[in-house]
Amino acid sequence: MTHDPAFALRLRDLARLRRVRDRIDRDYMQPLNVEELARGVHMSAGHLSRQFKLAYGESPYSYLMTRRIERAMALLRRGGMNVTEVCFEVGCSSLGTFSTRFTELVGVPPSVYRSSQPPQALDGIPPCVAKQVTRPIRNQEAPLDPPG
Questions:
Q1: pTM for the full model?
Q2: Largest CA distance in the chain
Q3: Alpha carbon distances (Å) from 24 to 4, 60, 102, 104, 124
Q4: Is 23 in contact with 40 (CB distance < 8 Å)?
Q5: What's the CA gap between 82 and 114, in Å, rounded?
Q6: Which of 37, 50, 88, 94 has the CA that lies 20 to 30 A from 31?
Q7: How far is C-alpha 9 from the chain's CA centre?
């Protein structure tokens, strides 16, 4: 076993980052901000943001929004809720921010996504596979025009 203090610090930070990611995954529908997440793992907000991005390739806020958009996609596919209801159900407080981020990640606005989903499109597909197949693209990589 190594006694390198830098290595030990990095391992401790990685464990804290996992706790933050797990909290975002679990509590995505709650009001969360970087300062609160950082306080929960005894880090500064700046340090948390830098280390989270190094570990996961995106900021904590971006990761949170991706979780919310994934859940919104599932709710829109299922039907029975309008876009505004879905927005608030997944923890977003601004319909404009929600729609903008949804469009960046998915490539179409939520209303277009909702109307383009055939009923029972994912029936019979295990949820773990459906989640992978429908996962939004991160970092604004969604195509601007739907394939066709």
A1: 0.76
A2: 58
A3: 31, 8, 18, 20, 28
A4: yes
A5: 8
A6: 50
A7: 27
CA 139 to chain centre: 11
CA distance 77 to 110: 10
Q: Tens-of-pLDDT digits for all 148 residues of the chain?
A: 557 888 888 888 899 999 999 999 999 999 999 999 999 999 999 999 999 999 999 999 999 999 999 999 999 988 899 999 999 999 999 999 999 999 999 999 999 999 887 655 556 677 666 665 566 655 545 455 554 4
Token pair of 20, please? 């933050």
Rounded Cα distance, 19 and 15, in Å: 6
> Cβ of 38: how many Cβ atoms within 10 Å?
20
For tokens 């990761």, what's the residue? 63
